[in-house]
Amino acid sequence: MSMSSNRMAKLLDLARQISRLEIGHPMRVAVDGRTASGKTTLSDELAELIERSGRPVIRTSIDGFHRPKAQRYARGRFSALGYYNDARDLSAVRSLLLEPLAPGGDRLYRTASFDLERDVAIAQPSALAPVDAVLVVDGTFLQRPELRDLWDIVIFVETSRGLSDARGLRRDRDRLGEQIAMKVYAERYGPAFDIYEETCDPARTADVVFNNEDVDDPILRIRRGGRLSPDQQC
């Protein structure tokens, strides 16, 4: 794992705090934030450090629960409302992934219900989660009302829209083409996140805010009164 010493120190602190929690069922950790804010990278890093502590880790993404293309784009290819409301099957996220790992759940979970490339539903076999497992899920809009009560810890990856868009365009322009990528970020992803901020205030309600504006020197803020340590800034 290659990263700056400052980033490693923040992640080690966060991983230790998560790893030492015992809650009697698999711990469900959400890594929320804007498109291209760095959620996937942070989730991978955090999952590796938690696993090093000896806790079993289930690492996945909400992207395994897309809806069919006809539903995702029913309001238009560049619709912000379409992205916010229609992109993912939140009932499947609840019933297949999060509820089985809740208190009293059978711990038989699935990490995907849909093959995005083939645009078809899949029947993935269930797996049995260890009681002390830590589930790390990255995705956008993870604190929507449909999901919020099923997370044990929520980490919000904080970045400005301008920086996230720039990172996303570098990542997606070869796949989508420059003009389409710019239009998707300007009209679909960015405005959809505005809706999310206005309705859910995700930075305020998260247990942890991980400011990722400077990836080499991030800022870690932990909410007072949550499962982790009292409010602090590192």
Explain the overall architecture:
InterPro entries: P-loop_NTPase (IPR027417), PRK/URK (IPR006083). GO terms for molecular function: kinase activity. The protein is of the alpha/beta class and 234 residues long. It has a domain at 5-61 and 131-233: Rossmann fold (3-Layer(aba) Sandwich). Helix content is 39%, strand content 18%. It has helices at residues 5-19, 39-52, 69-72, 80-86, 90-98, 161-176, 178-200, 202-205, and strands at 27-33, 57-61, 108-109, 114-115, 120-121, 127-128, 134-138, 153-158, 208-211, 219-222, 232-233. Helix 4 (80-86) crosses helix 7 (178-200) and helix 6 (161-176) packs antiparallel against helix 7 (178-200). The longest helix is centred in the C-terminal third of the chain and has 23 residues, at 178-200.
CATH topology of the domain at 5-61 and 131-233: Rossmann fold
The structural class is alpha/beta
Unreliable stretches, pLDDT < 50, 5 or more residues? none
Q: Helicity range of the residues?
A: 25-40%
Keywords: Kinase, Transferase
Organism: Bradyrhizobium denitrificans
Domain Phosphoribulokinase/uridine kinase: 30-210
GO molecular function: kinase activity
Brief sketch in words of this structure:
With 234 residues, the protein is of the alpha/beta class. The chain has a domain of 160 residues: 3-Layer(aba) Sandwich (Rossmann fold).
